[in-house]
Amino acid sequence: MIRLYSMLAVGLIAALLGGLGYMVYTGQNQAEFAQCRGTSISGGAGAIGGPFELVDHTGRVVTEADFAAQPTLIYFGYTFCPDVCPLDTARNAQAVDILAENGYEVTPVFVSVDHLRDTQEALAEFVRFMHPEMIGLTGSEAQIRAAAQAYRVYFAIQETDDDFFLIDHSTFSYFLLPGHGFVDVIRRDQTPEQVADVLACYIENA
């Protein structure tokens, strides 16, 4: 069962919404997708993304190569997150449905940053609830940190003596295109319709 904790925790997590923000700023767009990108990536789009090995919600070992042939929208969070993660993940799922209605297939992916509680079973329940095509990924602490580092994702587990701890984390989503890899970040203030428009622009111009 997906557990939602006190809404007081939202303020704490919301304070970290920038997370990766210091690396993402308005500036000159890369020429290839200038008409699509609303942000410029510090170090260029090639500075984000890379190899990883994780386990999906069915128990299958996957790597970045498993997502190379399909437009993919990746979000890092955890199933025990009180509000931000469910809202952002649901937003991504809605955007994927809007795109599907217009003939574009995008795979939604949820990468857990909670190696202690997000078992295969917990992830399976979460992604089934969010979207039938969503893929949940988890792994050992080292595997998760390697994937987070590749995407320049910040997360930190709060110290506590019980199992009801929160995890501070950045809240961007990451869009990958076949033949291009990572191309842009999606901010959490963007609506499902806005996300769908941005992703469709990339797909049409790839």
Structure notes:
Belongs to the SCO1/2 family. This is SCO family protein. Keywords: Copper, Disulfide bond, Metal-binding. It holds the Pfam family SCO1-SenC. Cu cation binds at residues 81, 85, 169. 37% of the residues are buried. The model is unreliable at 1-29 (pLDDT under 50). This protein is 29% helix and 21% strand. It has helices at 8-14, 84-101, 120-130, 141-150, 192-205; strands spanning 24-25, 40-41, 53-56, 61-63, 72-77, 107-112, 135-138, 155-157, 167-169, 173-177, 181-186. It is globular. It is an alpha+beta fold and 206 residues long. The chain has a seven-stranded mixed β-sheet. The protein has a two-stranded antiparallel sheet with strand order 1-2. Strands 8-9 form a two-stranded antiparallel sheet. It is built from five helices and eleven strands, in the order αβββββαβαβαββββα. It has a single domain (8-205), classed as 3-Layer(aba) Sandwich (Glutaredoxin).
